[in-house]
Amino acid sequence: MKHEFKRMDADNGDYAVRHSRLSLVIAAVVCLLLAIFVWLLVMNAGDTKTVPLVLVGGDAEYTYTLSDAELEVSGAVFALKAVEKVEVEIPKDVATVPGTHAIALEDLVLPEGISLAKLTGINLTVAKK
After folding, report:
1. With pLDDT > 70 as the criterion, what percentage of the chain qualifies?
2. Does residue 11 surpass a pLDDT of 80?
3. Higher-confidence residue: 3 or 24?
4. Mean pLDDT to the nearest integer, 79-103
5. Which residue has the higher pLDDT, 15 or 115?
6. What is the spatial distance between Cα 51 and Cα 48, in angstroms, rounded to a whole number?
7. Cα dihedral: 88, 92, 95, 100 (round 10)
8. Percent of the chain beyond pLDDT 90?
9. 10 Å Cβ neighbour count for 53?
10. HSE-up of 108 (CA within 13 Å, CB side)?
11. Given pLDDT bands bounded at 50, 70 and 90, which one contains residue 7?
12. In which band, very low, low, confident or very high, does the pLDDT at 14 lie, cut at 50, 70 and 90?
């Protein structure tokens, strides 16, 4: 058997894989669109968050105390990120009546896109200074 060795200076097997720029641009656009789609899915997913309750209104001659300091709310992730607190408006009919009063759902100022995760009874204690 005779072995022949050929000189392969011109064609040594080093080939660069060539891609057209158009295919690279299309691949980048597809990846970007997929990333945006996944981000939108995650941001619109439902979740819950515990936020502090803040009293609004009332009379300066009285002190007001809530039975709970925090409230669990639910909504889309993008809406929950914007929520820092839930305001509780002191009802005018009980603002100057000492004692313990139930807070109605209408007295809670919930931001748009946010709802209560569970209904809990919140009480307001009114006392004269």
Report:
1. 85
2. no
3. 24
4. 89
5. 115
6. 10
7. -70
8. 25
9. 17
10. 26
11. low
12. low
| Three-state secondary structure of the chain | CCCCCCCCCCCCCCCCCCCCHHHHHHHHHHHHHHHHHHHHHHHCCEEEEEEEEEEECCCCCEEEEECCCEEEEEEEHHHHHHCCCEEEECCCCCCCCCEEEECCHHHEECCCCEEECCCCCCEEEEEEC
Q: Which residues contact 75 (CB under 8 A, 6 or more apart)?
A: 46, 47, 83, 113, 114, 115
> Who's near 84: CB < 8 A, 6+ residues apart?
51
pLDDT of residue 19: 63
- Torsion-angle region of 90 (φ positive above 0: left; ψ -120 to 50: alpha; else: beta): beta
Give the C-alpha distances (Å, rounded to integers) separating 51 from 48, 70, 82, 86, 111. Answer: 10, 5, 11, 7, 12
Pairing of strands 70-76, 99-102: unpaired
CA 32 to CA 36: how far, in whole Å?
6
Q: For residue 90, which phi and psi values (nearest 5 degrees)?
A: -70, 120
